Amino acid sequence: MIGVLALQGGFIEHIHALEKLGVPNFEIREMGDLEKNKPDGIILPGGESTTIGKLLHSSGLFQCIDDLIRSGVPVLGTCAGMILLAKRIVNDDRLYFQAMDISVKRNAYGRQLGSFCAVENFEGIGRIPMTFIRAPFIERIDDENVQILCRMDDHIVAARQKNMLVTSFHPELTDDLRVHQYFLDKF
Amino acid sequence: MNERYELNKNLAQMLKGGVIMDVTSPEQARIAENAGACAVMALERIPADIRAAGGVSRMSDPKMIKEIQHAVSIPVMAKVRIGHFVEAQILEAIEIDYIDESEVLSPADDLFHIDKTKFNVPFVCGAKDLGEALRRISEGASMIRTKGEPGTGDIIQAVRHMRMMMSQIRQIQNQREDELFHTAKELQVSYELVQYVHENGKLPVVNFAAGGVATPADAALMMQLGAEGVFVGSGIFKSGNPAKRAEAIVKSVTNFNNPALIAQLSEDLGEAMVGINEQEIDLLMAERGK
């Protein structure tokens, strides 16, 4: 069972992707959801990181999910999800799980006019379509255990470390399911 | 153009499950962001004050909008008058994240809406039924909201508009395919848009509620009726304790199916905006721009 954090943002798109892959899943909206189900993997979706971060704390979910991440449960963070997992954010002092040794820049491509689509090589998958919406990127990696999976114009837009996989872009917004499949297979 | 339109619809998708709050200063914008708003709407006067002041209401001062853009990291939206494409060009020039072509301001054109396909920035438009929603989408809107009745604190119109849209969507879903041509003619939209609704049972873009939301219960009501998120205008900064009310509405939108939690959230919020009943108002903003 994959738990998809469903506090705000594009969670339904991840659920649709999982359903297309035939993967059982559930929404994580409140503490009860994690008492009823034990996730084998967690997805932190896109949305506004400030909103999701706020709701993580007020719902009490923060500690629970933090424990799960640190216990090694696989986690996929897309866009805002990457920000939630980063140990450092270069242009913001609000930090969340601080689990992954990356320094992330928020809204790194500017405002909505800077949003774009691209096709780029993703290590271990091949060329895939990528949708960047007011996206962050990884300015630098802070530990040699972080493996870079995709670069776009000299910026890191996908990486993995231990049980964590992060992307600047939104694999859930395209019909290409290979990033989700990669997460399910390799983690 | 197509790729840009997809990206603009995508941004609205990332706002889903969130609350977009009207703010009139950088300070209010920060309060909104700290309360968990997923975006803010920058404007000089909130709808309740526009209603009270009367006169012509226009796009806000770009300087004030830019100050709000600098104050917060979440998307910043701003309003232009219906049909006023130069106001829209100005907002595009200052890189606004979303333009609201809004009936809250005085319309600049009583016949033509802005041709939104000519812009790179996204547009959200109000609608009170499915025909209006689909016509705005065919003009290039990448997000829809109910019109409701702004600045009243009275939820009845938003409820009416959301129910109308949802029931029309359900009707189209149940139609025979050969009936869709006639429906397209009646709604004055393309067959393709009606066919999309028939096949998917939803609008092709994200649909929020707006106009009259004042309490956490109002917000949850709109979510249960099918809204994918909520705009709150006057309801927050016209109330006794804006920060607390804003936070409560944000949580209520996430947990719209959890009455026990909404009960807790509704406690001790201080005074709600006073509001005006729909029978007491002279100006129906929802009648602007069809």
Automatic annotation (TrEMBL), chain A:
Reaction(s) the record says it catalyses: L-glutamine + H2O = L-glutamate + NH4(+); aldehydo-D-ribose 5-phosphate + D-glyceraldehyde 3-phosphate + L-glutamine = pyridoxal 5'-phosphate + L-glutamate + phosphate + 3 H2O + H(+)
InterPro entries linked to this entry: Class_I_gatase-like (IPR029062), PdxT/SNO (IPR002161), PdxT/SNO_CS (IPR021196)
Pathway: Cofactor biosynthesis; pyridoxal 5'-phosphate biosynthesis
Sequence positions that bind L-glutamine: G47, E48, S49, R106, I133, R134
UniProt keyword annotation of Zinc present: no
EC number: 4.3.3.6, 3.5.1.2
Superkingdom of this protein's organism: Bacteria
Pfam families reported for this sequence: SNO
Function statement: Catalyzes the hydrolysis of glutamine to glutamate and ammonia as part of the biosynthesis of pyridoxal 5'-phosphate. The resulting ammonia molecule is channeled to the active site of PdxS.
Protein name as it appears in the record: Pyridoxal 5'-phosphate synthase subunit PdxT
Gene source species: Flexilinea flocculi
Gene field: pdxT
UniProtKB/TrEMBL annotation, chain B:
Pathway this chain belongs to: Cofactor biosynthesis; pyridoxal 5'-phosphate biosynthesis
Domain PdxS/SNZ N-terminal: 6-210
Binding annotation for D-ribose 5-phosphate: D22, G151, G212, G233, S234
Catalytic activity: aldehydo-D-ribose 5-phosphate + D-glyceraldehyde 3-phosphate + L-glutamine = pyridoxal 5'-phosphate + L-glutamate + phosphate + 3 H2O + H(+)
GO molecular function, one term: pyridoxal 5'-phosphate synthase (glutamine hydrolysing) activity
Residues that hold D-glyceraldehyde 3-phosphate according to the record: R163
Gene3D superfamilies noted in UniProt: Aldolase class I
InterPro entries in the cross-refs: Aldolase_TIM (IPR013785), PdxS/SNZ (IPR001852), PdxS/SNZ_N (IPR033755), RibuloseP-bd_barrel (IPR011060)
GO biological process: amino acid metabolic process; pyridoxal phosphate biosynthetic process; pyridoxine biosynthetic process
Active site (record annotation): K79 (schiff-base intermediate with d-ribose 5-phosphate)
Keywords recorded for this protein, A-Z: Lyase, Pyridoxal phosphate, Schiff base
Superkingdom, natural source: Bacteria
Keyword Lyase among record annotations: yes
Assembly with partners or alone: Homohexamer and homododecamer. In the presence of PdxT, forms a dodecamer of heterodimers.
Function: Catalyzes the formation of pyridoxal 5'-phosphate from ribose 5-phosphate (RBP), glyceraldehyde 3-phosphate (G3P) and ammonia. The ammonia is provided by the PdxT subunit. Can also use ribulose 5-phosphate and dihydroxyacetone phosphate as substrates, resulting from enzyme-catalyzed isomerization of RBP and G3P, respectively.
Membership in a protein family: Belongs to the PdxS/SNZ family.
Protein name as annotated: Pyridoxal 5'-phosphate synthase subunit PdxS
Protein species of origin: Flexilinea flocculi
Encoding gene, per UniProt annotation: pdxS
